[in-house]
Specification:
The complex is a heterotrimer. Chain B is α+β, with helices and mostly antiparallel strands. Chain B has a domain of 121 residues: Sufe protein. Chain: A (Alpha-Beta Complex), CATH 3.90.1010. Chain B contains 3 helices and 7 strands; from the N terminus they run αβββββαββα. The longest helix of chain C is centred in the C-terminal third of the chain and has 31 residues. Classes of the chains: A mainly alpha, B alpha+beta, C mainly alpha.
Chain lengths: 315, 177, 198
């Protein structure tokens, strides 16, 4: 069965660089982890560890015993997946929840499709979607930072009671923007602190691990569309999982298009879907489903926007 | 050519004729039984929300008067259509003569299993006991005189409450006219 | 004869091997009871349709065989629905539209076209029984796993205890889809291992 297969998804040309990039991403996520521990307490560290350990063990066991392939957990991709999953779930979940989510991420979304480079969907987001469908109550119980009181997230308040209540909740607009930016709000573990997410993102830009196309088109579309529909563009970008999604999740190399134009289309699509889900669907937040839906279009985008071969004359 | 078409036509017609005859026979056997089953199911549904009655008389479509053995009116049964999270479903409510709710029952529940489906459980349904039109309002905090929403299933909770409220208002209008 | 019968259960299991009749396997295998009910209904329909079609196969003009088969299947399904409605209303209610949908289940028409129209009555009977039983067993297997994981019980009896947090996705079609895929993979893997050892 060993054949040479040419696929659109195998983007990685230099295999030596996978571990470097993945560990680079993990390093970029470190400041956010510190913020999570600061805001939500040491329990947050437990959630992240549970997710990461489960991801690594699942990958190692499947590769060693089921497929009898060399174990490649040291490339850091399982760790990245575990961290991203833990960052996108509420901080107060029971510890078994992230472990189950990571198992689903790795076993079903990654290894079932053939492992790193072959997965159609972002594994961490599949894990999150699975958890949200299975345990909706646990997955939508938000505790506020520092004092740990449960209540609705800002986007939940927006959905149920309208924007004026959101502003009222924070006091005034300025505190709303600063709280959202620093991360002093109810939300998933790693999505609240925009400041530290941006610090990590700067590192990725500096190392050239991600390009500007997806984040800019993603966030730009959200800002533009929410401004056009009468919302507050800055609130739309700072709240929920937008920043985390734009820089760390949508930019996943395996599940996003190869070409720059393709990445722009991808980012615009995700942004539009996020606004649509937030406004019209049953859920207050839609980054996870928006990314997954656009993942399904990635092969199509890649097919229609091919890199131009050198020397081809336009007809 | 024409001969062929006629031949094929007769062939198919015969098959349909035999099939139709069998179905007619089936219907002849099962139709009375099905009617009985449906009637029984309806009566059971009505009884489940208004125990004190023994028979029911339709006042208007969806509204029934409950009579006891002596023929006195003991209350009313309303069947109301609720617009839930995953489509419409039927809710049946029993009401006493003072227009206070006795019991409600969710008949065709298609709401999300484990979340919205909890509208079927006693914990939610018992809240309706003794409530009048004014108290039929969904709130999120624990309450004695309003209806408390199920955690994570506000839409389903609201759907049931709104449907019952609408039915009750309509019932009052019909009776007091 | 026995080979034809067993063929439908293992080697060409409708759900896990032929990947036919996936619609009911996703929609009504949410509890073991529903799976069993659907399986038995289809067992009856496919066996009778195989027997009837194989016995009248020489009377049907080849040009209209598909409409003729569909008419026969539709009659059988309508009979099943009427009798279930009259005598087993609980099952009728929980299976709902999927009883009537049996008319268009690919597996029934497929066996009529592929097998019953070319074989003797006895062979077709065996094929129908095997296919129907294979489908029923697959449905019960799916039903047991989905009910166990999705609501913590099997055939309505609570097994997992009070502290179990049900895996809700198993009650929805996506969960069934995942499960069918994983079981299909498991059976393929098992067979490959089995034949390698021979």
């Amino acid at each position: 069965m060993d054949k040479l297969v040419v696929s659109t998804s195998a983007h990685i040309k230099d295999s030596d660089s996978i571990p470097r990039i993945m560990w680079g991403v993990n390093l970029a996520l470190l400041p956010v982890l510190i913020a999570a521990v600061y805001f939500f307490g040491l329990y947050a560290l437990g959630v992240v560890l549970s997710s990461v350990i489960s991801a690594v063990i699942t990958e190692a066991v499947i590769q060693k015993f089921l497929f009898k392939k060399p174990v490649t957990v040291s490339d850091g991709s399982a760790v990245t997946c575990g961290i991203l999953l833990a960052f996108s779930i509420p901080p107060s979940v029971p510890l078994w929840l992230p472990a189950v989510g990571s198992f689903v991420s790795i076993a079903i979304a990654k290894q079932c499709f053939g492992g790193l480079g072959w997965n159609v969907f972002n594994p961490a987001m599949i894990g999150r979607a699975f958890l949200l469908i299975c345990w909706p109550v646990e997955m939508t119980t938000w505790t506020s930072p520092l004092d740990g009181v449960t209540g609705a997230s800002p986007l939940g308040i927006l959905k149920e009671e309208g924007f004026s209540k959101v502003v009222e909740f924070f006091g005034n607009r300025t505190t709303m923007y600063t709280d959202l930016f620093i991360g002093n709000v109810r939300g998933s573990l790693g999505e609240t602190s925009c400041l530290l997410l941006l610090v990590g993102a700067c590192y990725l830009f500096y190392k050239k691990y991600i390009s500007w196309h997806i984040p800019v088109s993603f966030l730009g579309t959200i800002a533009l569309l929410s401004w056009m529909t009468g919302g507050d563009p800055l609130f739309a970008i700072l709240s929920g999982g937008c920043i985390l999604g734009a820089f760390f999740i949508a930019t996943d190399m395996v599940t996003s298009p190869v070409t720059k134009t393709g990445q722009l289309i991808f980012g615009i699509g995700v942004g539009a879907l996020v606004v649509l889900i937030r406004a019209k669907a049953g859920y207050p937040e839609g980054v996870c489903y928006a990314v997954l839906l656009m993942n399904t279009l990635t092969p199509l985008i890649d097919r229609y926007i091919k890199p131009k071969p050198f020397g081809v004359v336009k007809k | 050519m024409i001969k062929d078409i006629i031949k094929i036509g007769i062939n198919l017609m015969l098959i349909c004729l035999v099939g139709g005859t069998i179905l007619a026979a089936t219907n002849f056997i099962t139709a009375p039984k099905i009617e009985e089953v449906e009637k029984e199911a309806k009566l059971q549904a009505q009884l489940s929300v208004l125990l004190s009655a023994t028979q029911f008389k339709e006042i208007k479509q969806g509204f029934f008067k409950g009579l006891n053995a002596k023929g006195e009116t003991v209350g009313y049964v309303i069947s109301c259509l609720a617009e839930g999270y995953s489509g419409a479903f039927w809710v049946m409510a029993g009401v006493n003569k003072e227009f206070k709710i006795v019991r409600i029952n969710v008949l065709t529940n298609k709401e999300t299993p484990g979340l919205g489906s909890k509208i079927e459980e006693d914990e939610f349904r018992n809240q309706f006991k003794g409530k009048c039109v004014e108290s039929l309002e969904v709130v999120k905090t624990p309450t004695a005189d309003k209806i408390q929403a199920i955690t994570g299933a506000t839409i389903s909770s609201k759907a049931v409450t709104e449907a019952v409220k609408k039915g009750l208002v309509e019932l009052k209008r019909i009776i007091q006219k | 004869m026995l080979k034809i019968f067993l063929n439908g259960i293992f080697k060409e299991n409708p759900i896990f091997r032929l990947a036919l009749a996936l619609c009911p396997s996703l929609a009504v295998s949410n509890t073991a009871f529903n799976g069993l009910g659907m399986g038995l209904c289809l067992l009856f329909v496919i066996t009778s349709s195989n027997v009837i079609i194989s016995s009248v196969r020489n009377l049907i003009h080849p040009k209209i065989r598909i409409p003729a088969y569909l008419t026969i299947i539709a009659v059988l399904v309508t009979m099943v629905e009427a009798f279930l409605h009259a005598y087993v209303p609980a099952l009728h209610k929980s299976l709902g539209i999927f009883i009537a949908l049996m008319v268009v289940f690919a597996i029934v028409l497929a066996r009529a076209e592929v097998f019953a129209s070319k074989n003797t009555v006895w062979k077709s009977l065996m094929d129908g029984l095997g296919m129907g039983l294979g489908f029923a067993l697959a449905m019960v297997l799916l039903g047991i796993i989905r009910e166990l994981l999705g609501s913590g019980s099997v055939f309505g009896y609570n097994i997992m205890g009070q502290n179990f947090k049900p895996i809700l996705i198993m009650l929805f079609s996506p969960g069934a889809f995942l499960l069918v895929g994983l079981l299909m993979g498991f059976f393929n893997w098992y067979e490959r291992r089995f034949t390698k050892n021979l």
